[in-house]
Amino acid sequence: MDHMSQAAEVASRARILVVDDDASLAEMLTIVLRQEGFESQSCARGDHAMDDFRAYKPDLVLLDLMLPGKGGIDVCREIRAESGVPIVMLTAKGDTLDVVLGLESGADDYIVKPFKPKELVARIRARVRRFDAPGPEALTIGDLEIDVAGHSVTRTGGSINLTPLEFDLLVCLARKPWQVFTREVLLEQVWGYRHAADTRLVNVHVQRLRSKVEHDPENPEIVVTVRGVGYKAGTS
Amino acid sequence: MALDQLGRQHAAEVVKHALTFWRRSIQARVVASTVVLSALVIGIVGWFLVQQTRDGLLEQREDSAVTAATQVTAEAKERLRGVPPTETDVSEQLTDLVEPIIELGSTRDFAVVLSGPAGESRIVDSAQGTLRLDKTSVPSAMEDHFASSTARTAFTYTELRTDEVDGSTTGEPAIVVGSQVRLPADSQTYTIYYLFPLTDEAATLQLLGRAMLTAAGLLVLLVAGLTWLVTRQVVTPVRMARRVAERLAAGQLQERLRVSGEDDLARLATSFNQMATNLQRQIRQLEELSRVQRRFVADVSHELRTPLTTVRMAGDVLHDARGDFDATTARAAELLQTELDRFEGLLVDLLEISRFDAGAAVLEIDDVNLVDVAHRIVAATAALASQSDCRVLVEAPDHPCLAEADVRRVERILRNLVTNAIDHAESGDIRIRVASDEHAAAIAVRDHGVGLGVGESAMVFNRFWRADPARARTSGGTGLGLSISLEDTHLHGGWLQAWGRPGEGAQFRLTLPRRVGGVLRQSPLPLVPEDITEPVR
């Protein structure tokens, strides 16, 4: 998807695809989202989600994990295969395994049912809002070239495809290569959490980012772990 | 000094290792006791045999010595009888008497001493005898025996001492036989002592002893080897069974013993394997049950949460719009909102508890600084505290108090303790103390509220337990908070304990091991607050 046109759409009304089999909840979500100034469309079946996604071209997907037809994890994987659009999982399970599985299959964030509507809206806003790029800004981290305004990451000519969240994470680290970011700080700056939240979000996304940008994800050189503290940009 | 100490330590360690080996190894014990016993028996038998042989040899030698002495004496008497009665030179006659005997002695290997007239002179004064023979070789008891002129032939044992050319004296065991002759020259009785050396017998006995010792040593070695082999046959399968049992205990349920033959050990192995199979089946069943339970909890969770989310959102919409409603409906919307909060909290806690019950709770371990946790919780509960006119204070050391723990769960425990304290404090300070040592880190929450009655400090952790059912709740606790905290603590292998006394407040203490899997022996903080001085009944 072209990032520039996406950004332009966000500026007007963000479009949200709600994938949830519970009709009442889907309708309630639509009501609340409309109140908050979003456009939305709902989809009740997992196996129809991809068609609706392609037709509606949403700016964000709210995805339930338990769906008829096709599981939410699979839907998540398929969306991620063709787009970097933010995905927020609606999960009824707080269990570590399900959350980690969802995040590993490509979700950017998750929210556990039952949630407060304001909480949900805050998460959506955080994901739809992008880093403001006042002017052309070029960053380097390791052997990577980052064009912040153009939302592109290149390595010796070849471009690396990152989701907006992964891109934000990388930019956040690259802007202050001297600083060690704790997981809490990253949650605040990249995900928009104001209070402490689940630091597994950071762990999983750092792993995903590494699998795309590192030469050897087992010995990371671009996103380096600082044991007991957090992460920082690699210097080499 | 230090080296000496080190050496002693080393020696002590070696002894300890040896003792441990001794305690642990049946084989060593069986072999050692068999060796000791057989050595004892062989020793006794050997000693007995040597003794018998010695007695036999000596008896034979005595007989031959006495016979020889008697014969030689008889021959001497014969010679004396042939002497004409006119001969009166005593010393010449004595020389004539003794010379042939000494000569005979030198060929038949015995020494001779001829003492003076019986009862008149001692051997040392006036004796003739074999050259270089130390005359004191004849014991004085023997001499006393021959003091009378009518003493019978007698023998005894003595040491035969010979003066060597170089002046030294050598001794060897010998039999001395005494016999008397009457000298015609002066009609006095003279005693001839024959000293028969026991050199041959001593050599024989020595040889026998050496042979016996060698045989005994070999025999003991053989017994040790045999015992070792036999016990090995029994101990090896037992050790194998032990290893398999250990692996089973460690959770490798598919481990089995190899059964070979039909002897007792094979039957033991068969029974053992049967037991393992039964255990495995039972555990599988339990695992299956637990899995079903977890699945059920997950389903209930999903089924309950989705409608609750809808209700929750609807309530929120109504709550936000309550300004447009009339007073009654607006109040209803508010009540709906607060009760939804409570319902939600209850549901979350219930699901958490059932996860513990299903054994589905897992730890996400990290190095946690309890001081940071305390400050975070104080910040998070500040609003609630100010509502109840409480101050929450943290007393912590300057250094971090670290423990390997799941930060989410530790925060939840502390949040529960602090909100619980705020609930019961009825204003006044709440103190959070943090401390650590090398084995454990602890955090204690002290309030000065109503306190706990006798026996209540154990009951506070029961599900839905209330100190006073009539008391109002301010924080809207679900009654499950402390139970969940206790489960969280157990998951860490830690302690969560309560102290309280009516009117003097309460203190809850959480102690976590410094390392995951560490065993707690004591907490860095006392359970009874230091401001309480009287002994607790």
Structural commentary:
The complex is a heterodimer of chains A (236) and B (537). Helix content of chain A is 41%, strand content 21%. Chain A is of the alpha/beta class. Chain A has two domains: 3-128, 3-Layer(aba) Sandwich (Rossmann fold); 138-233, Orthogonal Bundle (Arc Repressor Mutant, subunit A). The model of chain A is unreliable at 4-11 (pLDDT under 50). By secondary structure, chain B is of the alpha+beta class. In chain B, helix 2 runs antiparallel to helix 6 (199-249), helix 6 (199-249) packs parallel to helix 7 (264-320) and helix 7 packs antiparallel against helix 8 (327-357).
Q: Tally the helices of chain A: what do you get?
A: 9
Structural class of chain B, by secondary structure, is: alpha+beta
Approximately how much beta-strand content do the residues of chain A carry? 15-25%
Query: What's the CATH class label of the largest domain in chain B?
Result: Alpha Beta
Give the rounded overall mean pLDDT of chain B: 84
The whole-angstrom Rg of chain A is 17 Å
According to CATH, what is the topology of the largest domain in chain A?
Rossmann fold
Q: Write the element-wise H/E pattern of chain B from the N-terminal end onward.
A: HHHEHEHEEEHHHEHHEEHEEHHEE
Uncertain runs of chain B are: none
Greatest interface and its residue counts? A-B, 26 and 25 residues
Order of helical and strand elements of chain A: HEHEHEHEHEHEEEEHEHHEE
